[in-house]
Amino acid sequence: MSPKKILVIIDEMEVGGSQRQIVHLLTGLDRERWQPELLYFRNHSFLIERLKDAGIPARMLPKRGRLDLRFVRDFARILREGNYDLIHAFSVTAELWAVIAKMVARVDSPLIASERNQQVQKPRWYWPLKRFIVTRSAGVIANSAAGARTTAQYTRVADSFFDTIPNGVVVPPPAAQAEREAVRTELGTPAGRAFCLFVGRLVPQKNIDCLIRAVALLPPAERPFVALAGDGPLRVHAEQLAESAGILDSIRFLGERSDATRLMQAADFLVLPSHFEGLSNSLLESMAAGCPVIASAVGGTPELIQHERTGLLFASDDSAALATHIARLSQDAALRSQLATQARDYVTRTYGIPALVAATTAVYERCLRRGRRGGQTAARVGTCATEDGSA
């Protein structure tokens, strides 16, 4: 039997959590069973080269402006000519354009939607749009139980329509002490100072302001050396905030990096102060790398981190609590070692790439069987009642 053709779609392929999960998933698929391709709309990164090196086609379909009729026409042509067995979209914009292109192309390939961030306070248009998408999909994969619950509630679609599949992570071999020291020297980490790392895009979601404020609360002698690995529209703002807070000499902005694991293995701990998250790749990768983590208790993060056992949690936007955790880990090497060991053991057991691939392909198989029986969407599964009892 020939392999099933899978088209994975995302709006942009900059370095981010969903993008890294796409690479893990597509490179992990059994090519005798699955023939994957990637379609994206903008922002090429080194992740595209990783897919191409693995023999996976990756095509950019540029979109110009909010309503680009040529984009819709070309998208529909790709769907018609590709004759895909299944479509898997990883972002709400990719989902929306996939639904529209399917209608224009008149193809019936099942669409699997996604929920990758647990955020209730979205723009007013978001949940009606998400319901429009979900009710035209064959399934929804969320990367956290919190994200699945929230999306089911606000789209008024039955919980049974959602599958929760946590992100997967590659567990690297431990780094040699000489390599750790080489990275710290390369970054200019001062001798005797703790090394605090942030890995992620500099966007409002990640709340980098909270980290900067927390570091500024500490006495100068107790401040760690902070490295921010990532880029984004808030970089200039973050640099200005660090300067106005008087801590610019304690922070290095590294820009986009392809060696996040190497940085994590050299750091004393990683901080993720996000306003909202699904299941964070930065946290997973840091825990797998043996780097202790401090994170805001939002979205799927408490599903991943057991406070005081596999990491430290604090209330979102509480800079004082974050400062306390930073000071504690900076000064307590034994606690860092304990948290790192327990987190690495937990992630190794629970979040391997084979588990991600197996769970996702099980959803693929189920949606393909549904398609052969005439199709099933959220509208056919049923909707949840609202508080007043209406659908």
- Beta percentage is 15-25%
CATH architecture of the largest domain: 3-Layer(aba) Sandwich
Number of helices: 16
What is the terminal separation in angstroms? Answer: 42 Å
Q: How is the largest sheet built, in terms of strand order? A: 3-2-1-4-5-6-7
GO molecular function: hexosyltransferase activity
Domain Glycosyltransferase subfamily 4-like N-terminal: 15-169
Domain Glycosyl transferase family: 180-344
Pfam families: Glyco_transf_4 (PF13439), Glycos_transf_1 (PF00534)
Describe how the helices and strands are arranged.
Blueprint: E1 4-12, H1 17-28, E2 34-42, H2 46-53, E3 58-60, H3 69-82, E4 86-89, H4 92-105, E5 111-115, H5 126-134, E6 139-142, H6 145-155, E7 162-164, H7 177-187, E8 195-199, H8 208-217, E9 225-229, H9 235-244, E10 251-255, H10 260-266, E11 269-272, H11 281-288, E12 293-296, H12 301-304, E13 312-314, H13 319-331, H14 333-350, H15 353-372, H16 378-381
Parallel strand pairs: 1-2, 1-4, 2-3, 4-5, 5-6, 6-7, 8-9, 8-11, 9-10, 11-12, 12-13
Description:
This protein is of the alpha/beta class. The chain has two domains: 4-168 and 353-381, Glycogen Phosphorylase B (Rossmann fold), CATH 3.40.50.2000; 177-350, Rossmann fold (3-Layer(aba) Sandwich), CATH 3.40.50.2000. Helix content is 44%, strand content 16%. Strands 3-2-1-4-5-6-7 form a seven-stranded parallel beta sheet, sandwiched between helices. Strands 10-9-8-11-12-13 form a six-stranded parallel beta sheet, sandwiched between helices. α1 (17-28) packs across α15 (353-372). The longest helix is centred in the last third of the chain and has 20 residues, at 353-372. The radius of gyration is 22 Å and the shape is globular. The model is unreliable at 380-391 (pLDDT under 50).
